[in-house]
Design a protein that fits this description.
five-stranded parallel β-sheet, elongated, 2 domains, 8 helices, 222 residues, single chain, Rossmann fold, alpha/beta
Length: 222
């Protein structure tokens, strides 16, 4: 006994096979396109973390702690360009090694860089904080307190490129309700940038950590 020519079971299997084949071809095509345009795609991933505003005159330059090999140099440049009359930084906590006198505090290093690059001592304001600041949230809170004691209405925030979007989100959240405009000055890293971060171990770690922290803070503190 012969089966009908148009066997529904056989036709169904054929359609599924064709569907899997089409899906496989589509995946290979996407992988191929991703490889061809990998530089542009990976650069776009980094650009998602960067907020860098055109420099505008402000009341203060607020320098965030960390990466003293790049950030204070940029802050000094902005001061030299007369974009603000003061450079302000919150004093970071003393680590155990700092307390033993083995190494200087990160903030003290940044202040020394500022002075070496031509910022007068009287134009540098170091904000005290109980125990020293330990996070971007602490720095934003220290700035909030400082703004409440002054007539500041515009602030240039100086931080590293991949940290800039998260920093702006944190500072905007902390300063909500105050009449303060935040301007981001995103500083390039010394060993990698948005066009080659995936070729550098520190770049890979930095970008990965920033995206994790950005999403974590957004869902935890929204």
């Amino acid at each position: 006994m012969s089966l009908p020519l148009n066997n529904p079971v056989s036709a169904g299997k054929k359609r599924r096979s064709l569907a899997w084949l089409a899906a496989g071809v589509a995946v290979l095509l996407l992988v191929g396109l991703a490889f061809v345009f990998r530089t542009a795609l990976l650069t776009a991933v980094a650009e998602g973390l960067i907020v860098n505003d055109p420099p505008q005159p402000a009341d203060i330059i607020f320098l965030l702690n960390g990466d003293y090999n790049t950030r204070p140099f940029r802050a000094a440049e902005l001061y030299e360009q007369k974009l603000a009359p003061l450079v302000v930084i919150a004093h970071s906590e003393d680590t155990p090694a700092v307390k033993l006198g083995l190494i200087p505090n990160d903030t003290d290093i940044s202040v020394s860089v500022l002075k070496k690059k031509g910022v007068p001592d009287e134009k540098i304001v170091v904000l005290s904080w109980p125990g020293g600041v330990t996070s971007t949230f602490d720095e934003a809170a220290a700035l909030h307190q400082y703004v409440n004691m002054t007539d500041i209405s515009r602030v240039i925030l100086v931080t590293s490129e991949f940290h800039s979007r998260r920093a702006k989100w944190i500072f905007a959240r902390e300063l909500s309700g105050l009449r303060v405009t935040l301007e981001m000055a995103a500083v390039p890293y010394s060993t990698f940038d948005k066009t080659n971060w995936w070729k550098n171990e520190n770049g890979l770690i930095t970008l990965n950590n920033e995206y994790i922290k950005l999403f974590y803070y957004f869902f935890k503190y929204r």
